[in-house]
Amino acid sequence: MPDAPRSPFLLLALNNAWANDRLIAACEGLAEGGFAARRTSFFPSLRSTLNHIHAVDRYYIDAMTRGGLGPHAFYDAPDFASAALLRPAQAMLDQRLIRFCEDLEPGAEAGFVTTDRGVKGMVAERVDHLLLHLFQHQTHHRGQAHAMLAGTEVKPPQLDQFFLAFDGGRAG
Fold first, then answer.
1. What is the pLDDT of residue 160?
2. N or C: which end of the chain has fewer CB within 10 A?
3. Residue 100 domain boundaries
């Protein structure tokens, strides 16, 4: 029996949480110092790349839920020294994003939220545009982290699948 239809944003949020958990769990298998080791990519390490994802997630999820952190989501963002410390914190953010997408009323994705851009001021953004931007950002940087992981002793996890029937229903 097919599942009830789900919002594409909820499906993206669920897949995002799955991909983050798989990638960060793989990073937990790195040798001592491997998480922070210098590597070639946009950010110089897995640590800095995955911490960047976390900080940007904080900013946008906070903006969409009207939490009021604004740029402090970046300035006060924790710097997780290990994948084991990052994993539960990222999972909490991922669950907030899933809840936001679950609670998004039909049509509300065309609404606006205000983002605090610091010195650039307050900017009204469409919710659907922010969500798509956030998912694009996460995918982009996870791909970079995936490539960095390929240069280590840890096999990068498969992240290019979605919630297909042959995957065993991991969409929950």
1. 84
2. N
3. 8-166
**Residue 80 CA, distance from chain mean position:** 15
The domain that holds 71 is classified in CATH as 1.20.120.450
1 pLDDT more than 50:
no
| Token reading at 94 | 């991922």
Which of 56-65, 107-116, 161-170 has the lowest average pLDDT? 161-170
Give residue 169's pLDDT. Answer: 52
Q: By C-alpha distance, which of 131, 157, 145, 114 is closest to 56? A: 131
Instruction: Kindly state whether residue 171 falls inside one of the protein's structural domains.
Output: no
Chain mean position to CA 5: 23
Name the nearest CA neighbour of 111 among 131, 93, 128.
Answer: 128
**pLDDT over 60 (residue 170):** no
Mean pLDDT of 10-19: 95
50-81 exposure pattern, b = at least 16 Cβ within 10 A, e = fewer: bbbbbbbbbbbbbbbeeeebbeebeeebeebe
Q: What is the pLDDT of residues 22-34, one digit of tens each?
A: 999 999 999 999 9
C-alpha to C-alpha distance for 121 and 29, rounded to whole angstroms: 42
> Does the residue 2 lie in any domain?
no
Establish if 114 belongs to a structural domain: yes
